[in-house]
Amino acid sequence: MRPFVLLFLLGLALGQSAPLEAVLVLRENVLEEGRLVAYTGTQRYPVASEGELLRLLDRLARPPRPPRFIYQDGRWQGVEKKGLAFDREEALKAFREARAQGKKRFLLPVRYTPPSPSLEDLYALGVREHLATAETGFWGSSPERVHNIRLAASRLDGLLVPPGPFSFNRALGPIALEAGFKEAYVIVGDRTEIGVGGGVCQVSTTLFRAFFFAGLPILERHAHSYQVAYYKPPGLDAAVIQPYKDLKVLNDTPGALWIQASVQEGRLRFHLFGTKDREVAWEGPFITDRKPPLPPREIPDPTLPPGARKQVDFAAEGAKVVVRRRVRYGDGRVREDQVVSVYRPWGAVYLVGPSPAPEAPPAPPEEAGAAP
Q1: What are the pLDDT digits (tens) for 251-263?
Q2: What ranges does the record list as Pro residues composition bias (predicted)?
Q3: Which end of the chain is more exposed for a tag (fewer CB within 10 A), N or C?
């Protein structure tokens, strides 16, 4: 007699039934190529007892996961995960009825909970396709600066921008210690000094570029005092200083915009999604009025070891930089504009530790004693 037949008979002798298949039906929406598509699939799980079924329900239950756009196979796709919830008594009833009727499988009763917002919500608001991506690098930044970049980017990740004006400062909220930001080096006029939120301008600069590449009208934008090494090419940076300087744009697209951020491997990226109704071309930077960098400066830093020297800013030439843009709308309208930046010359900045303590002079040699 074959081994599996023996096992089956042994199971019958012990009063055990053969496993049933619990079938879970999954219904998910996907945004692809500007269309909202519904997919239905199934997953099957062997269940031999009521205890196994209850453990399976605990394993499958999950909260909803918010929408996310992913790039694969050369295209952007919006995905989400609905929450799954199970009524244990309903599932046990379905299992018992299937076993009593000699069936091989049964459907798991499940309740779906869409995320908020869902892909269906985004589609209804006009978030349907990729519009623009911008990125900047922050290699070499201090841990405090990296923390501020990550925190500010997370506050804007998954943000819905309705039609009308958008304010970076309003969307971000207060840049303060109470809001979780740390102290790091910031530019204040013609000085580099410690201030709360150093690194936030990396976030405003990167988002400004995404808005610029998407063809949105710029309502308010401020260049930095000098050309910051992190923000190449020059002319596409955006400084913010609450409450005096802000980054403002106009969402004049047919619907809402969705901002998605990612921070990884020393790079910050912003992706914009919405309804594409224009084509954008830009050229530059065009650089004139060049001026040589200033001499380097040193800033005492008592937290550094004695004699230590650390560069925190790099020399940059002064210049006037122009970046031009041409936006062609689907209805034939054309809008041309330019971003003008005037940078002052800048010198490298070094933090220096305290001066090393002077070495004690060597003790004089002992004189030989005189003969008695």
Answers
A1: 999 999 999 999 9
A2: 355-365
A3: C
